[in-house]
Records
---
Amino acid sequence: MKHVNIHCDVAQANEIIDILEQCQISAFQILDNVKVKNRIGDPRMNNPIWPGYNVLIMTQIRKQAKYDQLIQKIKDYNNRVTHLDQLIMLEAWDLDTLIFE
């Protein structure tokens, strides 16, 4: 099982949710108004100097096939962007325990 964090500009959130749904990942959590300073692109601090902000979409994926599909779709998405600020950052790690049932 994997825990996945996906960071993106708020303007891209619906596209990322569409990708999750295409991968049949229906359970996720969204943290809104996330301020960021990435290694690439402009900071998004939601202020007059650095406008905009990110969202953080988190999900837990049990099936390896869904995880692999998501990774490929995010890579494909990043290959199509026209500006560095549109890149999606995804991080994932193994999840040993999930108590929700």
---
Amino acid sequence: MNKGFKVFTFLLCASLALMFFSCKSTPKVDDVEEVVEVVEEEASDKKALSDLESLHAKIEAARKEAIKNEADSLYPESFQFVDAEYEAHKMFTKTKIVAAEHIASAQRVLNRYEALNFSALATKAKKRVDGFQFKSYDEAAYALGVEKLSEAEKGYLADFDTETQRTVAEEAYFAFRSILNKAFKDLATTKRQELIALRAEVDAIKAGAADKAGYNSAMLVFTAGEANFAEGEYEDAYSEYLDAHDALSELYERVLEKRAAALRAMEEAREKSEAVDKFALEADEIAPLENEDGNEE
């Protein structure tokens, strides 16, 4: 066998070996597509499960918040309806692998509990508006709140759009809340003006020096009111202005009383001194004192 033949044989064997291993290591196109589909499906399932778990956590939080705001006592039948819907949803999620319909079902339940919470908040806000007789501050907002609250309360039906129900309940709450804010802003503004005028009177009589602790305490409350007013927390601001005004009024009256008592004491001392002088003068006229030489003055 000559040298050229040997080289040819070697190259032929090498080529056959490469072809063999190449065919064995490269998967078919169909096999690759199947693997990709399985991986994508597993990733999709994990995301859906994660989304569902997140919604369930939000549902539990929304339910607790609704109970905190007394939705279960203000709307007992509606609350029981939503609880039953929640239980049905949990049974539904056990039927098969999590899918889009499970996510949609959870979202509907979440909307229900949030609607209940806003309805409860709106109802309590309306009661406060009525109790304080604040309706006149914004009658248009009051009418809107009544309309939206009624619409939300009628929404506990299986075929009612839950997102719409949540939205109208929220709108009802914001309507009544806006009336409370407007009213308390007006009250806080008036009380603040009264408080500033009173502080000027307190400073005029140096009450801060007479009772530094009491004065500083009242000023701290006033400062807290200023911060709340700047942040739009008008009800809290009004309450703090009211407390500061009461504290300064009490301080003012107390310092005035102390001053009056001191003046009375000084007047009494002066009167006593004058009485003593008068008595001494009368006594001297009746029985004049003799000088050292025995002569009368």
---
Amino acid sequence: MPLGSFVARTAAGLFDLTLWILSTFALLKAGCSWFSPLIAWIGLVEIGYHLRGSLGKVLFGLSIVVSGRAQFYLRETIGKLASVATFGIGFLVVMGNERMAFHDYIAKTRVVQLRLQPANIRVLAAFGLFLGVGLAAYVGTHFAISGRAVQPATTEPNISSIVQQTPGVCTLNIYDRQGNPTGQGSCFILGRDGLATTNFHVLEEAYRAEATMGDGRLFHVLRIQGFDQEQDLIVFQLGREIGALVEWPKDLFALTLGASTTVSIGDRIATIGSPEGIPNTVSDGIISAIRKDEVPPIMQITAPISSGSSGSPVFDLHGRVIGIVSSQVRDGQNLNFAIPVEKLAGLLDRRDNLTLADFRNQLQPPRTNPLTSDPFELAFERGGKLYEAGRYREALDQFLKVQALRPDEAAAYYNAARCYEHLNLEDDAAVEYYVFLSLAPSNDPDRQAVVDWMTNRNYDLPATP
């Protein structure tokens, strides 16, 4: 083989290799799959050595399409378009002369005698265009990828993650035998088919219960699927009775269950519920204590809790449910607890399929807890649960019982006054608050609010000791 021909073919091969390396680099920088440069290389070889006409262009065009297929994402569009343009413009211009492939041109021309004839100019212009577009592809892709890199890899958890969960929380309205409303609570959706949960005490004496979704849709509590009286949890099925037929939900927004073990004292949490009947109310706070004597540990939270909040989900800042609100009164103090979500595990697979009537018939008197066997403690705890369920008259009876058992317990008078307020018996509430102020220490956190309430309504205050 003549030396000139050898040099020409070697130069053509090096040119092909250079094209492939540059295009491979551009494709990979643009985030394309590993097979894209391989297909492009096969197309280039076929065109360069065997095909000279339109068929070659079509095959090479297909390799371009395959190289860029489904590869375009919002932040990399410019870089990837430039990468494809490297093939589409550069190579198709090189192959514009259908009479002669570039390899043949090099082979038939002495390299040392190349002159700037029109054919030479076309080839050199195409090569320069290819290099220019390739450089643009690299620069465009570099900035596209750099722009993506400055975005955080993960979203910083914040309260907005919880707000997005509001479609999965409902307001529960409870009715007695005569159809009169007796209380409210909150519940949340566990499954798109309408499986939901709340506190046991919310549905404990319900003859009828309705769940109102955030979007206004109304469902009935049709079946009790499982309950745990001691843990104060119940799982039930929502549906809608239409005459003799039952319509079961199919597309409800189900919340994601997390784990209470992923949070610690001081971590921020939030709840969504219906305090005082106001739906989709978001309250935040922290975990103030963890009772490690329980397994899993029960969390004490600072998120504001009021009547109607029982059964609300407690979220971490990723929007995962880690607990269920269960406000309780213990040792004469109002404490807000979150039952760990893990305690739902034993109820999720149960399908007792009980009507509310069957459920009430199955209920047994609550077991006596050795730690709270004192009638004072039992009455206080029972009063707290009734209050949270919105059953203020029954709760009042329990707090009056506490007063009889321990007349010097300031919290009993405070809680009785709150019940009277909800019953619109303001004068009776003032009497209870008066006794509360007489007994409560000066540093009691509720004292100033009671003083303001009494003063604003022109009620007498006890003499300051």
---
Amino acid sequence: MGNGDQRKNEAYTTIRIQKKSGKKRINIDLRLKIDTGAQSDILPVNLYKKMFPEHMTQEDKVKEGILTPSDVILTAYGGTRIPQLGKTTITGTHKGKTIKCSFYVTILGLNTCKKLNTVSINAEVKAAPSRIDRDMPTKDRPPITNKEELISMYPECFDDTVGCFVKCRYHITVDPNIKPIVHPPRRVPLELKEKLETELDRMEKKEIFTKVTRPTDWVNSIVIKEKPNGTLRICLDPRDLNKALKREYHPIPTLEEITPSLAGSKLFSKLDASKGYWNIKIDKESSMLTTFNTPFGRYRFNRLPFGLKVSQDVFQRQIDETYQGCKGAIGIADDIQVHSKDETTHDFNLHEAMEKTRQAGIKLNADKCIIKAKECKFFGIYTLQGELNQTPLKWKPSETLKILKTGRNSGASWDSSTTWEPSYPSWPITLQISEN
């Protein structure tokens, strides 16, 4: 295999290292060449020096006590011994997740390591973009090449906390003619009781739930579901409560409305609002309506619950207000689509959307975000092709469409040009699958 073919088949990844320099935080991107056949990872001392100059003496030697001494003998594929100074563990982030990488710091330079084919991870250091201040003009903000850079520029949008629209505290309106209903606690399987108590405590600490000790007119039931990781998801069962709620009916954008703005776009990014409706706080009076029973007492929601028939309208209104006037951005439920015809325009549009996201208090799910793709599934229904060229978007035959059933024996008809399936439909629902 020639050198050109070998380079073509090399695999790379990047980890981000954040370190302090005085009062500032500096981000360093470590670009890694992956060798799955190697038994250890090495880092040439000249690269270590670039990353951590504060660890070096005036004689360009690593200070004592910095590296962990190691008796490990490193050899290249041809049997050549590689002298090493010790071991170091570097903490970084990759795709939004914190990882720890252990390296042997070698005396050999990078060029020598390459010639010996010894580097299981060849590294190069470059400056990574730091957090962008709110007052920086959008036109002056640097290009965004990948998800890791986006997270570095807007870290507060990806901090794994529950977001909160800063300008919204919603009041739920009820019909006074509807009589409140109190549900007794549902039985919980014995093997799930401890997990339920743990999840209730966790949600209370995160201020999503609050313990209720005073009398309330409404007491709802809950539905619990065990996740693949063994934890529980607690959902409100508001079947009776929904009958008493007054809905504000905020429209969701239709396919006909958004298609013209997408025509000709070649780059797409997707931002996913983490925890959806929980980004909306509700006032105390409304919170009391969401009181639910458990074997461990009553609790109430402090955030807008999934399943309420008002939730879709309230959340969509907040999304529309947040991204109103934001060029190249469309928000439907918790999906925010950013699109453009070229890369420069896309950077501007994405920065503008991210600044709106930050100012609104929305938190994003890093795992579900997509940056600068040529096609991108939007709202879970259709795929945006990279070059629309004024061609209307079409439903993919393989996609199944969920249709709400509005009552007993009365199925709702589907009109793709005027109707959207809500991301979090009202309760109760019956799902029907259409193959066409």
